[in-house]
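Figure 3 (text version): structure tokens given as input.
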């Protein structure tokens, strides 16, 4: 996953509470930041005297129109997570302006005024505290733990800082923060190679973490701004009606744990004990069949004595197209939806290509319990197949790079809170609003696999 590359139109629904830690008894009169949870806002709630602090709670009076930048929330760093914001704010990426917060929020709000925007979300930036929101309370709270260096006494933790990070971690996994609604029919991605072709060569051969918008062309910046203007000014737009978030998540749910299990089985399959090696490999073959069960056709059987796996091609085709074929006939689709459709098609096509070829090769070797099963297996061939499968699964998972695989292994204990380095760098996966797959899918269009995503 690489953030700093996606912009999406969205809303914050009516009745949503927003929180602001104030300095002194002073109501905000200029654009400022609000939090979705009080644990985050109270971290900034303070007075110089340390005698209590003022805390503002707001409620949205109507749906707030916002623009969402995928990023790393409050972690403002110059490693790429702010690139998309920079393009809109300054007209180009300016790392030296990363921490110019006041200038940034003022420039964004000034730009957004022409489109009727109420604010922006990476962390929530509210442009006007007197429009679209109602005051629930503006109270002087008892003094939280002092900000600054934690006490040396380990028996006195620094709860305010911890709880700020902890509250953010509640939304690290799908569906993320459901209080922010994204309209994926208005998604703009810098991985859209038709919209932003100048970055294709720039990314070639680089690790995903090194993808930046630094060398984007002026023409492509204009293309993005024109597309974003179209999204922000459209009225009654004809859309497909597809629930893209659910579709994308269905694909992740279907394959993520199973691929992870396959990787685990294959990593434990090589053994000096031949019988154990074969037993583990057969379990892996079972998992491959399970993944393909809805697509294994009765008529798809290998030819006697043939080493070709072309007989499995109809299985691959059915697997690769089941989730998207009906959508392709939609009479109405926005450019953003067409991008998501193409990316989804390429993703499912590559998953099904790899999994079907693995399963078919296992069938030919006699590992499958239902098709072409053999009592006496060639152990040397089985060992070679294991190595091949391991490489194929690892390559596929590396290419997919799904955020559900970003986790501690083994899992952390209940007394440990892992933030997956969200404040150490800006490689935080898209966790705020749950679009854990969007940036990856859009990016698929600009990348190629060592083996092309075709049956051959």
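Below: residues designed for each position.
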């Amino acid at each position: 996953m690489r953030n700093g590359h996606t912009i999406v139109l969205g809303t914050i629904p009516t009745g949503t509470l927003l929180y602001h830690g104030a300095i002194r008894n002073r109501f905000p009169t200029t654009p400022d930041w609000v939090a979705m949870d009080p644990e985050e806002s109270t971290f900034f709630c303070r007075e110089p005297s340390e005698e209590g602090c003022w805390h503002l709670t707001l409620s949205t009076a109507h749906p707030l129109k916002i623009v969402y930048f995928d990023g790393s929330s409050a972690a403002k760093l110059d490693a790429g997570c702010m690139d998309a914001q920079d393009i809109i704010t300054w007209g180009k990426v300016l790392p030296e302006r990363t921490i110019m917060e006041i200038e940034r929020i003022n420039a964004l709000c000034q730009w957004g005024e022409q489109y009727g925007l109420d604010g922006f979300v990476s962390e929530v930036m509210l442009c006007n505290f007197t429009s679209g929101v109602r005051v629930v309370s503006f109270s002087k709270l008892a003094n939280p733990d002092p900000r600054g260096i934690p006490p040396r006494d380990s028996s006195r933790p620094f709860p305010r800082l911890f709880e700020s990070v902890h509250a953010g971690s509640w939304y690290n996994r799908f569906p993320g923060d459901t209080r922010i609604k994204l309209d994926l029919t208005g998604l703009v991605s810098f991985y859209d190679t038709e919209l932003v072709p100048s970055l294709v060569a720039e990314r070639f051969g680089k690790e995903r973490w090194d993808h930046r918008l630094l060398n984007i062309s002026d023409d492509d910046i204009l293309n993005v701004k024109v597309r974003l203007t179209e999204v922000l000014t459209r009225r009654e737009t004809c859309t497909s009606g597809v629930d893209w978030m659910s579709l994308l998540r269905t694909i992740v749910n279907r394959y993520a744990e199973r691929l992870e299990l396959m990787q685990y089985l294959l990593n434990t399959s090589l053994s000096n004990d031949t019988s154990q090696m074969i037993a583990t490999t057969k379990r892996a073959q079972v998992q491959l069949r399970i993944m393909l069960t809805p697509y294994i056709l009765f008529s798809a059987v290998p030819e006697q004595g043939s080493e070709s796996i072309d007989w499995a091609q109809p299985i691959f085709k059915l697997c690769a197209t089941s989730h998207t074929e009906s959508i392709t006939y939609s009479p109405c689709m926005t450019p953003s939806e067409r991008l998501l459709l193409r990316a989804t098609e390429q993703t499912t096509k590559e998953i099904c290509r790899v999994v079907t070829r693995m399963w078919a090769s296992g069938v030919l070797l006699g590992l499958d319990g239902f098709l072409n099963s053999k009592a006496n297996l060639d152990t040397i061939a089985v060992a070679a197949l294991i190595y091949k499968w391991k490489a194929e699964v690892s390559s596929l998972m590396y290419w997919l790079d799904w955020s559900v695989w970003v986790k501690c292994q083994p899992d952390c204990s209940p007394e440990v809170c892992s933030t997956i380095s969200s404040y150490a760098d800006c490689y935080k996966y898209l966790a705020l609003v749950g679009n854990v797959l969007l940036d990856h899918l859009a990016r698929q269009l600009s990348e190629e696999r060592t083996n092309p995503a075709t049956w051959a």
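The longest strand covers residues 133-141.
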